[in-house]
Amino acid sequence: MLSGGERRFPAARASGGDVTVAQAGPLLQLRGISKRFGAVQALTDVRFEVRAGEVVALVGDNGAGKSTLIKIVSGIYPPDTGTIVWNGSEILLHGPADAVALGISTVYQDLALADNLDVVANLFLGREVGSAGGVLGTLDEIAMERRAISVLRRLSVKIPSVRTVIAALSGGQRQAVAAARSVLWENKVVLLDEPTAALGVGQTHEVLELVRRLRDDGRGVVLISHNLEDVFAVADRITVLRLGRYVGTYDAKTVTREQLVSYMTGAMPGTAEVPLPEPRGAAT
Fold first, then answer.
1. What Å distances lie between residue 183 and 64, 190, 259, CA to CA?
2. For position 50, which CATH number holds?
3. CA–CA separation, 100 and 235 (whole Å)
């Protein structure tokens, strides 16, 4: 439970239309975030932000603190110090449920999909829609199937059928289904943790197209990736962490791969800050 002085979050709702938030301020902003695990200082005074309708890539070598930062945003870890700001208001996350209620969705590498269930069941897992009336509380399979088809079409996700079991889908299709849950439940910020890891060229292309569609749909997308080619393919801005510290945020159109690698490895100190992009409206 949240204390009386903290902000309460509205529950997410299933969405049938585009998100149309396009604002000057960031959807999500982290200021001065630090986190220690025993003798290990995982993060020190880190800052980060993402706006509606943009893709911000979070990059850094192993041990840079990317996973810790994402788990703080997801409500898994509380920060030791620092502030989390959502839509201009400071908030406290007491657990993953708080992040979900706000509209923050995290798609981890393992995707958290049930292989033995079909696409519809996975999209509504834990949020099933019941039929009106009846003592048995039966599920409204028709309503859920219609919603599933609608959101997958909007994202141009190509699968054989919404009744196909997850185990029969390719890696790229599974990523698409996991990301589609973010759109179905009106999540405004989507965090994608290494979404193209272990995927082939064709499947990687499908996932990157999905990232673009999420951005064009008005979401703020955070892409965590070691693959700089993927980062440059879709990112608007790139934030670099090194050894748990903030290095800088750079315009993906002007920074080079060589510069990024230098910032990530410490061969070159990061000094550049880029102007914030113009707010991007949601695509119809």
1. 29, 9, 34
2. 3.40.50.300
3. 24
d(CA 212, CA 234): 7
> What is the count of structural domains for the chain?
1
The structure tokens listed for 261 are: 């690698």
User: Does residue 244 lie within any of the structural domains?
Assistant: yes
Choose the most confident range, by mean pLDDT, from 12-16, 36-40, 120-124: 36-40
Point out the least confidently predicted range of 2-6, 123-127, 171-175: 2-6
When mean pLDDT is compared across 102-106, 181-185, 242-246, 264-268, the lowest value belongs to 181-185
Give the relative orientation of helices 201-216 and 171-184 as an angle to the nearest 10 degrees: 10
Sequence-distant (6+) residues with CB within 8 A of 202 are 172
Residue 194 pLDDT more than 50?
A: yes
Are the CB atoms for 23 and 38 separated by under 8 Å?
A: no
Is 35 part of any domain?
Answer: yes
4 vs 275 pLDDT, higher one: 275
Single-letter residue type at 123: L
Q: Contact 192/235 with Cβ under 8 angstroms?
A: no
The answer to whether the beta carbons of residues 269 and 277 sit under 8 Å apart is no
Tell me which residue range forms the domain holding 259. Answer: 28-119+187-265
What letter represents residue 14's amino acid?
A
> Closest Cα partner for 183 from 216, 209, 208, 160?
216
